[in-house]
Recover the amino acids of this structure.
């Protein structure tokens, strides 16, 4: 339980921060729509995907070596081993998670967000069932525990990313932008704009969940045992947040960040 909770909050902190960096796609595309600069839309969307790759590579490397850092935080060795098992698998879900955020930001800016909700619901249900089957060894599958939870989550993340990419390719309105076409021009200036807009979003997203991360690692090191009731309250609130982020992570993009994207889109279209 401790290893799973620790691994979940660490992974979510990394994923939320990384995904926030690509959220600059929404206001930039919305601004291009408002200014009737349709030639910029595929540029921004394409650079958003490239930015997803550029962000995913170092975060995957970081996630794969977090056991060395966790060993310096006073955590029990068995807890670190369990968390490391989970993170070593979950790191393969970072790119689809970040890429999904970039594509979701694109379709939201183009007023095509409803299919995202459908993909999110199906992906989440698959994730929950997969966690149950692989984590507890049901229907003839081996009991993989934390590793099973991680495998199911990675499959769900890849499935949602590929499903949304397929929708962008096949939708009659979106395929005209030729986002995945090799002929779509690239622009380093657009990439810099995305980083300039998205970096603050990623920073504040990281700070939002980073509070739980700091407190999670700080209980033992800071010896906060004199406040058992406060610790219990924190554990309950963090468990609630962990459930929302771990099982309903895409919904967070569709509801919380989805509302943010709608606001970005509405306001960005006005100056255009």
């Amino acid at each position: 339980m401790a290893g799973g909770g620790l691994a979940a909050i660490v992974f979510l902190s990394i994923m939320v921060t990384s995904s926030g960096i690509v959220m600059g796609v929404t206001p930039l595309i919305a601004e291009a729509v408002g200014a009737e600069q349709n030639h910029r839309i595929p540029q921004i969307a394409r650079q958003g995907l490239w930015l997803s790759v550029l962000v995913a590579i170092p975060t995957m490397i970081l996630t794969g070596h977090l056991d060395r850092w966790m060993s310096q935080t006073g955590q029990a060795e068995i807890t670190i081993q369990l968390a490391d098992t989970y993170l070593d698998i979950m790191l393969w879900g970072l790119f689809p998670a970040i890429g999904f955020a970039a594509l979701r930001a694109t379709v939201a800016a183009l007023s095509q967000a409803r299919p995202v909700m459908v993909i999110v619901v199906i992906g989440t249900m698959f994730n929950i069932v997969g966690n149950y089957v692989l984590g507890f060894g049901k229907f003839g599958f081996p009991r993989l525990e934390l590793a099973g939870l991680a495998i199911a989550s990675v499959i769900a993340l890849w499935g949602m990313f590929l499903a949304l990419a397929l929708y962008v390719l096949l939708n009659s309105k979106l395929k005209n932008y030729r986002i995945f076409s090799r002929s779509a021009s690239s622009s380093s200036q657009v990439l810099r704009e995305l980083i300039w807009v998205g970096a603050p979003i990623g920073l504040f997203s990281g700070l939002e969940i980073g509070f739980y991360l700091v407190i999670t690692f700080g209980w033992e090191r800071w010896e906060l045992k004199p406040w058992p009731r406060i610790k219990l309250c924190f554990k309950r609130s963090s468990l609630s947040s962990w459930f929302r982020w771990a099982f309903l992570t895409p919904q967070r993009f569709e509801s919380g960040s989805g509302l943010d994207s709608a606001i970005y889109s509405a306001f960005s279209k006005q100056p255009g």
User: Anything to note?
Assistant: The radius of gyration is 19 Å. The longest helix spans residues 188-222.
